[in-house]
Structure formats: structure tokens, C-alpha cells
Amino acid sequence: ETGVTQSPTHLIKTRGQQVTLRCSSQSGHNTVSWYQQALGQGPQFIFQYYREEENGRGNFPPRFSGLQFPNYSSELNVNALELDDSALYLCASSLELANTEAFFGQGTRLTVV
Amino acid sequence: GDSVTQMEGPVTLSEEAFLTINCTYTATGYPSLFWYVQYPGEGLQLLLKATKADDKGSNKGFEATYRKETTSFHLEKGSVQVSDSAVYFCALLNAGGTSYGKLTFGQGTILTVHP
Fold first, then answer.
1. pLDDT, average across residues A3-32
2. Which pLDDT band, with edges at 50, 70 and 90, does A102 fall under?
3. Average pLDDT over residues A66-81
4. How far is A97 from B76, CA to CA, in rounded Å?
5. pLDDT tens per residue across span B53-106
6. What is the DSSP letter of B1?
7. Which residues in chain B are closer than 8 Å to A44, comparing Cβ atoms?
């Protein structure tokens, strides 16, 4: 039990649609990161938010966007869904940027058809 | 950029066998190194970590030593159990610059332990 919860657990969307995934971090954790894990691969960094501002981004297009809220919750939004967006999306929270321990949620399995 | 390479899998062992999963990395500076475990249908759980050279991380019988001279962080366990069956990910965290706070993962190694 990591104290990080994600919703929904599973989701099926049609190509071209938009989706919002949600994450509730541990209380007091100011940093949240989002990762995409394709089947059989390691997680790939999408972006990170620190105190409600984007702090860094991986090699993902602008149709991947996020928000972080003062109540330690966050969202990942993906517009114009493509079939290759099908993956497990993981959020991870940590106390501060310099903290070396990240706590992961159980993930949201997104299937794009 | 930073990268992590894990040994090719999957790995299949009998219960009580010795486990080694190799991990090497490329990074500038002084990254922290991690092993995460992922059970079927679940997210990632931190297994162990080491934050500086020659540190040994250990947890639940698993060990890994941060070797800067060989840029390695191999995972070992002396006697595996069926319950250890999972996917294991080696990862690094490189503080500084645009990669601050970002974890870079290897591709994962599937471990299956038979009774």
C-alpha cells in the first residue's frame, strides 16, 4: 500500500477521443510524475509537476498535458487519442524534488480502439 | 542521455535457486539507483535503493551493490521463492538539470519461479 491511488483502473476509448486520468498523491507530497508503460516495456517518463507547475517533460507531444492541484491530486489529459497510446499509465508521488523515493499508484490501463 | 540496460529475459528458476539479474547504466554525475518490482496487474513497488557508490541496498532477501567503476547495480537473491515471481525493473534517478526527479527505467526482466 503506497498511499497513491489512480482512477479509473481500466478505460477503453476510441481513436480521436480525449481522456482524463486521475491520481491522488500522498498527503504532503509536492511532486507528482506520470509515466507511460507500454506492454512488455519499462515505464517512460511523460512529465513531472512540482507545486502545481510543470517541472520537466519527456519525449511526448503536447497533446499530453497535466494539472496538479493544491489538494495533492493531479490529472493526465491526452487529446486526439491514437492506437499507440494504449498502455498502463502510472503516477508517482514524492515528498520533494530531491527525494529519492517515489511511490507509485497501481496504474490506469488505457485501451484505444 | 541517461539509460539503463537489463539482462535479457525471461528468467525461469526453481524454488531455492540463486538469482542474479544484471543491470548496467549510463549517466552523468552521481545518480541514485533502484530496483522496482511489479506483480501482475499492479503498479511498481520499490524493492531497494542505493544513493552513492559502494552502497548496498537490501530488502526481503534481495541485495544490490552500487558499482560506479563498472556502472552496474546487479540484483541478487540467495534463495528465491514462488512468491518472487514478478517483473523486476532497474532504474536510476539523476538529480540536476532537466532530468531532475525523473526516473529512467530498464526494459524489465520477467522472473518465474517454479515449485
1. 94
2. confident
3. 95
4. 29
5. 999 999 999 999 999 999 999 999 999 999 999 999 999 998 765 556 789 999
6. -
7. 105
Residues in chain B within 8 Å Cβ distance of A35 = 103
B108 in A contact zone (CB under 8 Å): yes
**Residues 6+ away with beta carbon under 8 Å from A113:** A12, A13, A14, A15, A83
d(CA B33, CA B105): 10
CB contact B13 to A (< 8 Å): no
Of B46, B95, B105, the CB nearest to A101: B46
Residue of A85, A68, A71, A90 lying closest to A19 (CA atoms): A85
Amino acid at residue number A87? A
Of A6, A56, A107, the CB nearest to B101: A56
